[in-house]
Amino acid sequence: MNLVAHLQCFVAVAEELHFGRAAERLGMAQPPLSQRIQRLERELGVRLFERSSRRVELTVPGRLLLDEAREILARVDRIRSLADRARRGELGALRAGVAADLTGAVVAALIAEFRERCPEVRLDLREIGTAEQIRALAEGALDVGVVRHPCEVRDLCLGPMLGQPVGVLLPSGDPLAAAPEVHLADLAGRDLALFPREESPGPYDELLAACRRHGYDPPAVHEARQPQFAVGLVLAGSAVALTPRPPDASGVTWLPLVGEPLLLRVSCAWRRDSEREHAVSEFTSAATAVLCAKAGMTPLPSAPPRRVVPRPASGFLA
Amino acid sequence: MSGPERGKGAARAGRGRAKERMDGDVERIEAAFRDAGVTGYLHALDVDSGREIGLRSDEPVVLASVFKVPLLVTFFRHVAAGRLDPAAQVTLRPEDRCAGPTGVSALQDEVRMSLRDLACMMITISDNAAADALFAAVGLDAIDATVAELGLRATRVVGTGRDLHEAMLADGGVRDLGELWARLAEPGVLERLRALDPMRTSRSTPREMARLMAMIWRDEAAPPAECAQMRRFFGLQVWPHRLSSGFPYDDVRVSGKTGTLPTIRNEIGVVEYPDGGRYAVAVFTRSPLPAAVLPQADAVIGTSARLAVEALRRPRQRVVHAGA
Asked: What keywords were assigned to this record (chain A) (predicted)?
């Protein structure tokens, strides 16, 4: 007997408690479904359902067998999906996402560190923004990502939160570049170069709101996907860039902002039900170590304290 | 939809084209939510023709204060059945009051008010103390029964405002909501709050909440006299920043009920045009930002509702068949 097919019928009837609905769900007619259940009951030597003219109910042995049957079916699904992935040559690869603004040295160090920790797993590293990483994680197209916060992290697990102060990149000849640090308000009137909003809308909105809050409302925002594009705009005197400290480049000067009003926060993120627990945890350790050692990030003990003045329209259960 | 002169193929092509246009509308609604930085869930329904449009219409959403709508309907069904006297006076003592920013929740002294006036406060200014007093008068079982009788299978009210308040403090490990707001950006805090998880708090779907509003407007949720009283309350709701902001037209009536919790901004309501067109709309949003004040997230509730209502008001595309 094809036990798997029979167990599928059993689970469908047990979940619907209705032969007609179960048959519809399985895409089969009701008489063969009833026959399969009877055959399964004969094979196992127990009655699985009490049937009366008005209702179908699980028997005590039926209830006990239901969990086992579900587990077997889940394992069969897993065998199929593993086989699919093996056929596509994906087995063993860990699919990880990182933002486009990491330097070459950081990317290389991350790959090397992961290789050392997990030599048997191939790292499939992709350059994608936070919003797309969140979508890919939800769809199962990505195993782990390094995301910028705030973002939608429901159903995700997070690694240690890392932070990096944002400063301003100015042309070296700019009068402001002579000071040791800059007030955000001193940037008033200048265009801004910033990472694209579609890559990570949460941090983008939060950063611009903080700029306005501190007296800098940029007349225009130029979205720079590649850090080098932002450097180009700064060199040309078209804009200033708000960015974590980049590698030194001639012609531009990076300065911290007074009071560190802007902070970029990142962490690793993966699905709660990830099947790659070991590799994901090794990647998280590797990424956390490399981002701290080579990308100027530091672990954040907790989020910065916030002052929130309640307003009626946004109050509890308004 | 089908004219006698229209061939089957033409009808099919017409449906395909109409669907294509609706798809374009849904994309615009999705883009509006994206621009506002929120995840949006919407369903809109022509109250009279049943024509509808939606985005994630059947996904479970957190009701927040929108739970006061099934509560209101239950109250008025009790009134209609003679089980509750709407003029009966209730005394609300300050020490048993549910917290909240408005109405009796914000008062310091004892208040005596009729049940129907509590209902008015609950809807027009989202008064939590009034809502919990009304909740106590009708009971959770009665709300369950209403929801079941109206065929709202994905809708479930699990508790009072006070239950929600206590759960938020317990889950957040904080003494009061001020402390919760201050710590909301800490990793893990938002995820721990059951009040923000549709499967563990009062929930519904955009489709079912739009249907509920349509039933109130069609006098089906309760007898006509009671539905009329409910419609009056929704029309008196004070908040201008969400659904109402999307319809800046003096001759259009917007009635609704908001729902608000950290990261959650909702409103369900009905928009009525002077030509008689009336549209039930339910919009639920979730923001990744823990900010309390986020005007663009409030406003997109109005914008998305307007896009949906405009799609429903557009005349159906006429099919020009061969030879016409």
From this structure: DNA-binding, Transcription, Transcription regulation
| Separate counts of helices (H) and strands (E) for chain B | 11, 9
CB contact at 8 A, A140 and A274:
no
Give the three-state DSSP class for A104.
helix
* B2, pLDDT greater than 50: no
Gap from B321 CA to chain A (nearest CA, Å): 37
Q: Return the H-helix or E-strand segment holding A168.
A: strand A167-171
Distance, CA of B213 to CA of B268 (rounded, Å): 8
* Integer Cα distance of B172 and B176 in angstroms: 9
Kindly provide the residue ranges of all beta strands, DSSP E only, lying in chain B, ordered along the sequence. Answer: 39-46, 52-55, 61-62, 89-92, 111-114, 203-204, 253-261, 264-272, 278-286
Q: How far apart are CA A232 and CA A220, in angstroms?
A: 16
Which pLDDT value is given to residue B228?
Answer: 98
Exposed / middle / buried, residue B154 (Cβ in 10 Å: 0-12, 13-18, 19+): middle
The two three-digit tokens of residue A256, written as one number: 């911290």
**Amino acid sitting at position B15:** R
B230-255 burial code (b ≥16 CB/10 A, e <16): bbebbbebebebbbbbbbeeeebbbb
- The pLDDT assigned to A307 comes to 87
Residue that the structure tokens 């659904």 belong to: B243
Whether the pLDDT of residue B17 is over 70: the answer is no
Other Cβ atoms within 10 Å of B100 Cβ, number:
27
Asked casually if ipTM beats, i.e. exceeds, 0.95, the reply is no
- Which tokens in the block code for residue A17? 């408690």
Q: What's chain A's length in residues?
A: 318
Which position has the token pair 């070459």? Answer: A104
Q: Is B101 in contact with A201 (Cβ distance < 8 A)?
A: no
What confidence tier does B323 reach under pLDDT thresholds 50, 70, 90? very low
Kindly list the structural domains of chain B, giving each domain's residue range(s) and its CATH number in brackets, ordered by start. Answer: 36-313 (3.40.710.10)
Domains and CATH numbers, chain A: 3-87 (1.10.10.10), 93-162+265-299 (3.40.190.10), 167-261 (3.40.190.10)
The pLDDT assigned to B4 comes to 40
Collect all residues of chain B within an 8 Å Cβ-Cβ radius of residue A309.
292
Residue the block writes with tokens 């939606």 = B54
Angstrom distance (rounded) from CA B52 to CA B49: 9
Confidence of residue B249 (pLDDT cuts 50, 70, 90): very high
Contact B100 A206 (CB under 8 A): no
Q: Is the pLDDT of residue A303 over 70?
A: no
Which residues of chain B make contact with A266, given a CB cutoff of 8 A?
Answer: none
pTM of the model: 0.78
**CB burial class (10 A; 0-12, 13-18, 19+) of residue B6?**
middle
- CA of B248: how far to CAs of B20, B245, B253, B303, in Å? 28, 6, 10, 11
